[in-house]
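TL;DR need structure tokens for one chain.
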Amino acid sequence: MDLPIIISHFSSGSVLVPLGIFIFKRFRIVKDLAPLIVLLIVSLLCDLSSFIIIRYSVNTYPLVNFYLFTQFSVFYYLFFNYLKRAAILKWIFIFFCGFYTVNISFFQGPFQFNSVTNVFASIILMALSLYYLFTLLKELPTATIHRLPILWISFAALGYYGGNFFLFLFSNYLTKSIDGSLAILWVLHNILNVIKNILFAIGLWQAYHNPNSSI
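>> reply
TL;DR here they are.
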């Protein structure tokens, strides 16, 4: 088995790390983190579905595009709960949903990786992550900021979308290349996905062991 395939399987399986914490805690859902649990379950189901349908040479991009929209929505919801500019954030999300719908319906379509939408999502979530970190350093709500679940979720968003920005930007162009550039970039994506799930696990762990810490 090729190394990229091994890394791909490892990336898919890494979602079991945060889900394992959820199961270990007897399926107890921490306040405000229910969407994260839903995201982890959706991630697992999408990966399992992809492994099945790819054996029949069925296009998996509809699942990929659905999952990436779901992941963006969950990240956005978690930041929305913390940041105070509710009116602006609502309009940004509405605009993004419209952009996603138009792009998948009339331009790139459901059977192609929606690179433009994901570049847009990356810019939004990187900006929200940096804004949150700036706000956290400015306000310092607690001396033990490492116990805030949203801190680790912010690192997950910044690392994943920051690291994958150029993959999302050039993905469809590199699909046509023959030099293996796309395969290398997807290996990077899978490694970043593992890191993201580990950071999710740390955030969940902090939430379970510090119930008084605000998200």
